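Hi X.,

You mentioned you wanted examples for the new student's onboarding notes, showing what a folding record looks like when two proteins sit in one file. Here is a clean example. The first protein comes first, with its sequence line followed by its structure tokens.
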Amino acid sequence: MQLHDSAIRYIDGEPDAVLAANTGLTAIPDALPRLRHLRRIDLDGNAITELPATVTTLPRLHTLLLYDNELTSLPAEFGPALRHFSVGRNHLTTLPDELWQATTLHTLNLADNQLTELPDALRALAALRMLDLGHNQLREIPAAIGDLPQLTDYLYLSDNNLRRVPAALGNLDRLDYLNLADNQLTELPATLGGMTALRELRLYNNALTELPHTLGQLHRLQELHARGNRLAALPESLAQAQQLRHLDLRDNPLQRLPEGIAALTELTHLDLRATALRELPDGLRSLPRLGKLDLRWTKLDRHPDWLTDLRHRGCVVLL
């Protein structure tokens, strides 16, 4: 298959990048492995079925993007400069052992495949900053996930078959974003409180009956999405997460809110739709930045008078 000249970007007369996303390719272009100076290859959104090692081992290649193709396997060799590798939305069921030896990787996207397990060898990817394992069929996550000291940007584990996550997850004390949504989780380890850099935590659509009391140690947390679980109450320590801005508790059998909720002075959005609450704590009235309070399909015994005061202050109150 031929590569159109317009897909090649040159720097100082040398081919530096191949940018051929969404161009209908069904195979790697014949000329591509011969472009030895390439640093970036973007072949997202094609129908490529095979990835040869002659591409993954290009000596200067630092970015290789093959999201949304038709790959069923990966080669067993990777080049010394590879930093960013994306093969999400393919048909991968297994991964070569050599992938875990690609220790130069900073980002790795394996989402939307049919992976069922991960090896302890993933701990070797010590430079990894982002790991996307969402939308697979993983049944468990190895404790070795906690041995990735540079994992700072994102960790996606959503939409798998997870019933638990390892306590070692709490070792990721530099991680900014964690997504565990759309699994079958019934509990979370108390070590979650060790993830002190977290700003966003997504837990929606699981089977959680409680959240760990250590949640209050997440002093940088700004968004907590816990919709669609089995939570009847929240830990009182949540009031210590005083940077919290967005709190989504919709579709839980929630019977009460923490007494100290008035301490969440940065809170702007509180979603209490379809909960089992019968009353609201008066502390909600004093939240200075609350811009939206959603109470639809929650059958309160009475609507406190201060809801009117919130509205006059500019807060959107939905009943």
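Then the second protein repeats the pattern, sequence line and then tokens:
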Amino acid sequence: MAVALARSAVDAGHRVSFGTAAELAAKCHKAALEGRGASIMRFFAGPRLLVIDGLGYLPLPGDGASALCQMINQRYLKSSTILTTNVGIADWAGAFGDATVAAAMRDRLLHRAAVVGIDGPSSRLRSHQAHSDNLRKGVTGRAGRTPRLPRSAGPSSRSTHRQPPAIPTARHAARQ
């Protein structure tokens, strides 16, 4: 959903930036160590829409939580931010390791936010399950049939040995 909204913003002519929370925090941390902290904050304040994906999915490096908080603060009331997370808002303090930083981010993000909660399996999991079901149907559907030979093959060339159904490779499955 976040990618679709970002794509719509790009189609409307807006500047959009996308990154995982861990990537953005690492970039901010590295820039701060190199003395470019202010310039990286201006950079992330620039896009009309910033999508921060996977907050709480991976632990944030070093001062990552405070760097993200500074980024959110720079964008506050000026630009739009989409945040995806698998951690409930009430549990952000544990995900960030700092209750004060979590409260500051929560305050700024929720002030004028629309929160969309999605329950159930992810789209990736649903897609994987559908693909697995199709493969399973294909294997069980062919297991009871005798392979057909071309009509030119005589009775003496017919084999009673059944070939197992072909299982697509990971590369083949990814193209479907």
